[in-house]
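Reopening: Aldolase/citrate lyase family protein still failing for me.
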Amino acid sequence: MPDTFTASTNALREKLTSGSPVFGTFCSIPHVTSAEALGGAGFDFVLVDAQHGAPTFDTLVQLIPAIQLGGAPSLIRLPWNDPALAMRALDLGAAGVVVPLISTRQDAERAATACRYPPSGIRSFGQVRGLSYGSTAATNDEVLCIAMIETAEGLENADAIASTPGVDGIFIGPVDLALSMGLPVDFTLSDPRLKEAMTAILEAGQRHDCPVGMPLFGIGMASGAIEAGYRFMTAGGDGGYIRMGAMGDITKLREIADGENR
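Support: Ran it again with your exact input. Result attached.
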């Protein structure tokens, strides 16, 4: 296996355990050029969205090394809590996986054991270009398994999920959580009931020394999230950055054109 695919430690894990805020962004476009640009933008990680984004497992073998070439590690948001998908993502070089819809301790155990080699888990050995940390035991210690809590049932079981061995962090899915609670979609996250639920998950993570993260729907949310104690956050994504940049320029160009015509 080429030396470029080996590492002594998982740099993202080190950052998460340092206590400082960690920032990532979403990769939803399955193209190596945009993936490399995201990897080189300075984020602590790039979250490849194989659940709701356009990337598929056929494209991960190109996207993961492109992001690494930019200088950032990759996390893969899986489409489902499927051990085969978790193992595949790690074999292809991801630093860890984000597993959606974790609602019970059993769900969390299923995800965590898929990410670890025996005796800690059920991961099958057969790396294609996966990161190796010197031994299967060392790899078990370095890989990241992030559980998404995004249902009312997951909220009720937050302590059980956060305390599950092998769960290295919790990522709150606030939109699906709100829907599961019977609340409307609101990207401001301002509903008191949703805020209370997110705080309960955050406090469960803190009780079990399990870092908790959330998406930022706007940079203005960052200060409050950091102050509250969230340890990792995502900001934006490739599609949104392209759209916002293009819209910003065309708006200015129209204003200039209108001014010239007066």
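The two ends are 66 Å apart (CA to CA). If you still see a failure, please send the error message rather than a screenshot.
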